[in-house]
Amino acid sequence: MTSSKNRKAIPSQKSNSRRHKSHCKICAHSQCEEIEREFVSWKSPAKIAAEFKLGDRSSVYRHAHASGLFAERTGNLRLALGRIIERGDDVPVTAAAVVQAIALYARINARGELMDPGEQERLDDQFAKMNSDELEAYAKDGTLPSWFPRSKGTKGPQGSGGNENE
Question: Which tens digits make up the pLDDT trace of 115-132?
Answer without folding.
Answer: 776 666 566 677 788 888
